[in-house]
Amino acid sequence: MFLASAVFRNLYMESKHRLTIFKSQVLHTNNPNMYREKLKEAFEMKTRPITALLFLILLLMAACGPAEYDARHPMAEQATFRFADPELEISLIASEPDIISPVDMAWAPDGSLYVVEMTGYPITENHGKVKKLTDPDGDGHYTLESIFADNLNFPASAMYYKGGLLVADAPDILYLYDSDGDGVADKKEVFITGFEPGNQQFRANSLQWGRDNWIYGANGRAGGTLRFSDDTTQVSIASRDFKINPRNTQIKAISGLSQFGLAMDNWGNRFISVNNRFARQVMLEQPHLSRNPALTKDAIFDTYKDEHDRRVWTLLTNAMRFNRDPIGYFTSLSGLEAYRGNLLGPAYEGSLFAGESVQAAVIRRHMEKDGAVFRATDMEKDAEFLTSTDDWFHPVNFSNGPDGALYLVDFYRRFVEHPEWAYDEKEEGIDWNQGQNHGRIWRIARKANPLEPEEMRPNFNEVDISTLVGQLESGAGWRRDMAQQLLVEGQKKEAAGELEKMLDATSAYARVHAYWTLDGLGLLTTKHIVQALGDKNNEVVLQGIELAKKHASISDEILEKMISLANSRDGDLRFKAILALGDSKDRYVQDGLISSATQYADKWTQTAILSSVAQWPLRFAQEMLAVHAGSKNCDEKLNFFRQIGDLMAYSEDKNINRWVRTVINKTSKTDCSGWALVVGYMTAMEELSKPTPKLDDKIFAYAVENLRQIPESPIALLGTELLRYTSSENTYQEVMDILINTQNLDLQIVAIQMFSNLKDPKYTKRLFENIQTLDPKARKALIVSARNSTAASHSLLNAIQEETVQVSEISEELRYALLYHDVADVSEKAETLLSGSVNADRDALVKRYESAIKNLAVDLESGAAVFNTNCTLCHSINGKGGNLGPDLTNIGSRSDEILLTSILDPSRMVSWELKLQVITTKSGKVYSGMVSAETITSITIKQSDGKEHSILKENIKKRSHIEQSIMPEGYERIIDEKSMANLIAYLRNPV
Fold first, then answer.
1. Cα–Cα distance measured from residue 210 to residue 367, given in angstroms and rounded to the nearest whole number
2. What pTM, to 2 d.p., does this model score?
3. Hey, how many other C-beta atoms are within 10 angstroms of the C-beta on 770?
4. What is the three-class DSSP state of 278?
5. What does the DSSP assignment read for 524-585?
6. Sheet harboring 270-274: ordered strands across?
7. In sequence order, which residues have a C-beta less than 8 Å from that of residue 883 and are 6 or more positions away?
8. Neighbour count for residue 143 (Cβ, 10 Å)
């Protein structure tokens, strides 16, 4: 009986497996030929009639059942995968029931695989696990050995550390250790604590051993104040990522704010990402920013050549979504990883990978070096690296394997979205846990690339020191990293001789790892640094620069090499060397930096210089002006000299104020460099609430003369900015007359800014009295200028009251800037004029529009006109338009209800990065918009017109977080039902 039962069970399982594949191939397609072929195949199973019968019964049951997608067997899911490169293949290494809801993976030195499970996602606590899997025969298939740890909260990441694991499980990083070898962690300690838990998608993650022997991690966009469990020293990581040195219990906040995924390439370049931005390169670290806080905007570089290069070539056409994000563009990126193996082929070396977890796609971008920066290149061209038609496929993380392959963590369950981002009415009745007992890990490599078992499964615990050092030459980045980690963790100083030999290895990777391993063992010498700085490979030289910067006692020989590199023709060598020299006060170093600044005008050389001369800005400014005295080439150095002036404003050198006055009084009326420096200095001093030097009337006369004679020139615009520092009433009246009568748009806008910064309201009052005569762009600039001063705010509100400015012209960010103004008279008047300007019942409004547009005839040309008038400032379609908000090229797949809600009720569900903030400075200026960057010293606000403003935190008087979208409400005032129908038709067919 038992035997019969077993046979029947096997037949049943085979039938069910056939059905799973059949459903994956047929039931979700419209191909009747395939359906007939599979039925014929079932009837022709003559040797297994019972199997055929069971298959047909199950098929009939499936056909009568629900039409929604079901979980596929791993083999059936595998059949849905499509590679852009046909020479690649994917194979399963682990799946349910051994693992479920996996979000990360980590190998131990003995070849064991630890899988992090967030089973309770999205809301059930204490269901997280870490499982230990093994591959006894080295065939690449892992099976469950034990539950290493359970009852975790929402664990997001794990890495091997000192015989155990570090697991990120906010608010803690836990140290888990198995002391008795039974595969279960019997030691559980809090290693680091203080992370903000927050949403499960916004938690600390991506723990990894760095090239410099620190442990790195991603903030997750949650933040926190960190400390070791046995220490009271706290470190804030607000808007920054973090790194940990466990050997001396140091925690550092580092530049960048990565959401889920943090990538470091073979040379230690660090890349971050958020859900809708693939890869951003970290350019300046916290010490560089602390030297010159004004460089906030240069800390992070977007690697895209084109801001609109965010297209996702997904195979899904009808995926169930709970938010308004359009299919076909980055919306749910996670698991950013730099490929550091050798089994995909040379073309993939240095590529970055991320999962588009909602759109069932793996994104790959090749990173091409361009001087100091990398630029992401889409190599697949109208395709993605890997796609699937299975909407349960959720690639959420990646790992470089010990064998040199790329490994993919597949969350595989019904939903990966979080209910927090779902419409309330859409969320009702949803079983967010559906399919939570599934999960897969896949291996990706080139076809026909067999490996020996020991290549698939390492066992570093059983090798000697010589063999371990030899792994630094491996083509697999995991092996190099693990060898270095084990040598440094164990302080294997006896490896010194072998490491010395490795410094002459053919592989540049091996040389890099050897240098940093020697450093981690405390064995690095000046001789080593000199050798690295003279390496034939520029990437190794860059490591030498980092090592020289790290070690305070720099010899004359090293210093000479560093100054030479600061004047190198290679942009990256130059950039990194200049940054590394920034802490030196040596006169010889100063001469070298001045030489570099005068030879090279590229942006990143200038950025590095502006960070590194912060301790001696006066001498630097004097030298630079001496070189460029009398220069009439305004374009080349204009912004650089403004930034030099900006830098000087932060200095406490009392000689600077007097020198600036001397400079401007001696500068000719056509010397752009001198004027730009003074404008930058005066503007920054005013923003810092510091006293500005009194300028001679001669300068203001020059400025007015330039306005009359060469109004289109950059120097005329610079002079206009300086005019607000005059005390001459006649000069103001003269400039006002020029402004009102000029046809020069640039001049109009600069002059508007100048007058709006004045405290006397009579000038802004006159501007608003003449607003009907201004160019539309100048009119908008005048309205926006209301944030510059209390006087300008009053003038705008008076103009609204008098109806010379319409409420519909006030952007949402400006409205909130006025409503949250620090001056009571302004905020109270704004409350009266603006708070009731839109329909309060947005839900009823959406329903009214939805009902009204159903049967209206539409006109695409009229719809395009509505879009161009109201939407292109922030949104783009087909590569044309603004980039503040999401690209809308493919948003037409959304329902009328979702489209109308997006337009008429944009704050019903607003994403984190589009929320408004209002900041009032001590000087009285008000900035409103979304935060595009934040460091320990400053915040950068991006406004709806695309302009960015960096504000020092020490100058902030008030900061308000608004639970509103930067996209305004109130479009019903300017887009009626007919126009809305045309707009939606255009969004569906943007031709």
1. 20
2. 0.84
3. 14
4. strand
5. --HHHHHHHHT-SSHHHHHHHHHHHHHSS---HHHHHHHHHHHT-SSHHHHHHHHHHGGG--
6. 262-264, 270-274, 277-282, 300-302
7. 307, 308, 876, 946
8. 13
Residue (of 203, 250, 243) closest to 223 by Cα position: 203
Residue by residue, DSSP assigns 386-420 as: EEES-TT--EEEEEE-TTS-EEEEE--SS--S-GG
| C-beta neighbour count of 61 within 10 angstroms | 10
> What secondary structure does DSSP assign to 579-635, as a single string?
HHGGG---HHHHHHHHHHHHH---HHHHHHHHHHTTTSHHHHHHHHHHHHTT---HH
Phi and psi of 620, rounded to 5°?
-60, -45
| Cα dihedral 296→302→305→306 (10° resolution) | -90
- 274 φ, ψ (degrees, to nearest 5): -130, 180
- Whether 358 contacts 373, CB under 8 Å: no
b/e burial code for range 511-545 (CB count within 10 A of at least 16 → b) = bbbbbbbbbbbeebeeebbbbbbebeeebbbbbbb
3-class SS of residue 476: coil
Helix (H/G/I), strand (E/B), else coil: 32: helix
How many angstroms separate the CA atoms of 385 and 83, rounded?
Answer: 6
Contact partners, residue 399, CB within 8 Å, separation at least 6: 104, 105, 106, 107, 337, 406, 407, 409, 478
Name the H helices within 256-349: 286-291
Q: Collapse the DSSP code of 144 into the 3-class scheme (helix H, G, I; strand E, B; otherwise coil) and give the result.
A: strand
The full DSSP string for 114-132 is EEEE-TTTTT-TT-EEEEE
Unique residue bearing structure tokens 């003038």: 795
824: enclosing H helix or E strand? helix 824-834
Residue type, 410: D
- Cis bond upstream, residue 74 (ω within 30): no
What is d(CA 488, CA 161) in angstroms, rounded to the nearest whole number? 11
Mean pLDDT per 10-residue interval, the chain, length 991 residues: 44 47 42 46 50 51 46 95 97 97 97 96 91 91 97 97 97 97 96 90 94 96 90 88 92 92 97 89 92 83 72 77 66 94 93 95 96 93 94 96 96 82 57 88 90 76 94 96 98 97 98 98 95 97 95 82 96 97 90 94 94 95 86 75 93 91 82 90 88 88 90 89 91 88 87 90 91 89 90 94 89 83 91 73 85 87 87 74 68 76 76 74 82 74 74 84 73 86 87 71
Determine contact, residues 481/458, Cβ cutoff 8 Å. no
Work out the burial of residue 148: count CB atoms within 10 Å of its CB; fewer than 13 is exposed, 13-18 middle, 19 or more buried.
Answer: buried
Burial classification of residue 504, based on how many CB atoms lie within 10 Å of its CB (0-12 exposed, 13-18 middle, 19 or more buried): exposed
Contacts for 727-730: CB closer than 8 Å, 24+ residues apart? 728/697, 728/700
- Among 578, 651, 584, smallest CA distance to 621 is for 651
- The contacts of residue 836 (CB under 8 Å, 6+ apart) are none
**CA 281 to each of CA 353, 574, 970: distance values in angstroms, whole numbers, following the listed order:** 14, 17, 38
Residue 318: C-alpha distances to residues 314, 391, 396, 513, 895 (Å): 11, 9, 20, 47, 11
Cα 351 off chain centre by: 17
Angstrom CA distances, 846 to 280, 901, 967, 983, stand at 37, 6, 16, 15
In whole angstroms, what is the distance from residue 48 CA to residue 379 CA? Answer: 47
User: Exposed, middle or buried by CB within 10 Å (0-12, 13-18, 19+), for 5?
Assistant: exposed
How do the residues of the chain divide into helix, strand and coil, expressed in percent and rounded to 5? 45, 20, 35
Helix (H, G, I), strand (E, B) or coil at 308: coil
CA dihedral 638, 640, 642, 647 (to 10 degrees): -170
Residues β-bridged to residue 950: 940
Between CA 614 and CA 457 the distance in angstroms is: 51
**Burial profile 318-344: b = 16 or more Cβ within 10 angstroms, e = fewer:** eeebbbbbbbbbbbbbbbbbbbbbbbb
CB 673 within 8 A of CB 629: yes
